[in-house]
Amino acid sequence: MLKALKARIIQGYRTGTFPKTEPVLPDRFAGRPVWDKTLCTNCGKCVESCPVKAVVKNDGKVTVDTGKCIFCRDCEEKCPSGALKLSKEYRLAAMTRSNLLASDGIYEPERPTDREFLKFCGKSLKIRQISAGGCSACELDFNVLGTLAWDMGRFGIQVVASPRHADCILVTGPVSRNMLLALKKGYDAAPRPVWVIACGACAISGGIYADFPETCGGIEEILKPDLYVPGCPPHPATLLEAMLRLMNKR
Q: pTM, whole model, 2 decimals?
């Protein structure tokens, strides 16, 4: 016991200061895409290079669907003029699907409008996480938020063992056919009202598995998400910021 206490004193305070201060992001972090129309040469290489068809061009305007994007940087690397880049903007989440579309406009993170959610979950949030065929990347980055470094419990956010105790169902993975029934049962078991968080590109749109017959291509046609958190996987700062903004604590 004394050794444990001594080690804890030596370690000191290890929880990060986010959201009071901006998170420390790695140099290779890929955030919200930004397109500069003044630099674009209309070569179309960004569209051709995207492995998940997240980049589209309409009437000369390039738009990146961050709900499909896996942030692989292929579009950025193939763009000869540097018109399309992945920024350091980690605030990627949206409450509506259309707000996941990134282009050349001024970006302002979406504010919560669900008054019922704020009434029930404005001060605390109980989450049941369901991995619907995920590769474990999104699951691991979500689990990181429960560690000492992030400690999401200090904001009243907790993971519960049963959907019967949950306010939210957080779904990861493209929803494999084998997990479809389990997902539906988990959602049905939750008390009403219950909200849905789509975590990662796979849960939002199917990601790289969107066209696979063994998956449902995300949860959009199964459960209507109340919060979309893009990424492959989402950075812990992206996910925590999303939940805090949903609770109107950000």
A: 0.93
